[in-house]
Amino acid sequence: MTEVIPLRLGTVNAYLLRGEDGSVLVDAGGPGAEARLESGLRQAGVQPAQLRLLLLTHGHFDHAGAAAYFQRLGVPVALHSADAGAMRPMTGKGLMGKLLLAVSGKLGDNSGLPAAVKLESLQSLETYGVEAAIVPLPGHTAGSVGVLLPDGALIAGDTFMNFVRPGPAHIAEDFAQMLASIDTLRGRGVTQVYPGHGKPFAPAF
Ligand SMILES: [Zn+2]
């Protein structure tokens, strides 16, 4: 049984997946998140260097801040090739979309992220001791993925956000593609969505 342990890092979340044979960290906060991640992991009884994998749901700077730190500790970093290197422009929907775009524009992109494991070549995390499937969710970014656990918990990256109310992300490279990705989740038994921003929620699909 894999346990999901949310690690709240200001406005962004990371999630520790503690499996029977290993632990995987999903996302790594924004720049400067190292200390908070480290103490969150230790509180959960996991030494940072013991992580079997750091999986980045996508390449945005606010999810990959501590990636280089974990890589220095010898933890392999997994990222989809489509999100390696410079990011493509995003568009925003509504007031929240405009606000988020304004903030992201100031903070730059992720150019030069280290990635030892190409996420597109992984279908599950079993090699890393965690029972969970990788679900491709392109749209927020071309290389976005989710992680689906057998009990229906979905670590969703930024495909879903929960700032004011839960729903699809307010910013995306391709909104139509993101909504099509969300459609592929129907019927897959998702019971709880753990978004990149905000609190977990039960999905409406
Ligand atoms: Zn994002």
Order of helices and strands: EEEHEHEEHEEEEEEEHE
The span between the termini is 24 Å
Q: Structural class of the helices, strands and pairings?
A: alpha/beta
pLDDT average, as an integer?
Answer: 93
Shape: globular
Ligand list: zinc ion
Alpha carbon gyration radius: 15 Å
Q: Please name the CATH architecture.
A: 4-Layer Sandwich
Q: Which CATH top level class fits?
A: Alpha Beta
Give the assembly state of these chains. single chain
Q: What is the share of helical residues?
A: 10-25%
CATH homology group? Ribonuclease Z/Hydroxyacylglutathione hydrolase-like
Strand content: 25-35%
How can the largest sheet be summarized?
Answer: 6 strands, mixed
Could you tell me the number of beta strands? 14
Describe the structure.
It is a single chain. Helices cover 19% and strands 26% of the residues. The chain is globular and about 40 Å long. The mean pLDDT is 93. It has one domain: Ribonuclease Z/Hydroxyacylglutathione hydrolase-like (Metallo-beta-lactamase, Chain A), CATH 3.60.15.10. Helix 1 links the parallel strand 3 (23-26) and strand 4 (53-55). It is of the alpha/beta class and 205 residues long. The strands form four sheets. The chain has a six-stranded mixed sheet. It is built from four helices and 14 strands. The structure holds zinc ion. Residues 58, 60, 140, 158 line the site of zinc ion. Zinc ion binds at residues 58, 60, 140, 158.
